[in-house]
Request: fold
Amino acid sequence: MILLNTKILKSIFVKNHNDDFLLSLCERLNEILPQFEINTKKRIAAFIAQCSHESGEFLKLSENLNYSAAGLAKTWPRRFADLRGQPNELAFAVQRKPIRIANIVYAGRMGNDNDASGDGYKYRGRGLIQITGKEWFDRVNGNSYCASRAVINFGRKSELVIVCPFQYGYG
Reply:
């Protein structure tokens, strides 16, 4: 059953018109979406909308953590803002240092170890749904059904997990 085609995706995405990518995406989505009961117009629309939002129209497959001090203060005020909401000393010290930022903001959360472990950056958001944290990477990668059925690999370094998180209440 054909659920999607490149014409449909091109009508949705105003930024991503990479024909080869969209064709590969359509072929793989048409194969695996029905396996997860994403098989009605409403479910497909919701799935595509969520993935599109998380990945910037399927263009951003790894979380961008290149924040300015002001961006850090706005996004994570408890960590990077003073009492007036302005960037604090830490925000200025780590601004535009994505590895350091990830290790701080994701330390001790979602199965990650402390900031010195490097887990924050290693397990930063990736894929079309932006899986984040060691716990979620392990849950998705450790599931043989997920690994065999719900991974898209477009020849990039990292595989793009696209469906399984819905099975586990993520996304």
Notes: Confidence is low (pLDDT under 50) at residues 144-161, 163-171. The chain has eleven helices and two strands. The two ends are 25 Å apart (CA to CA).
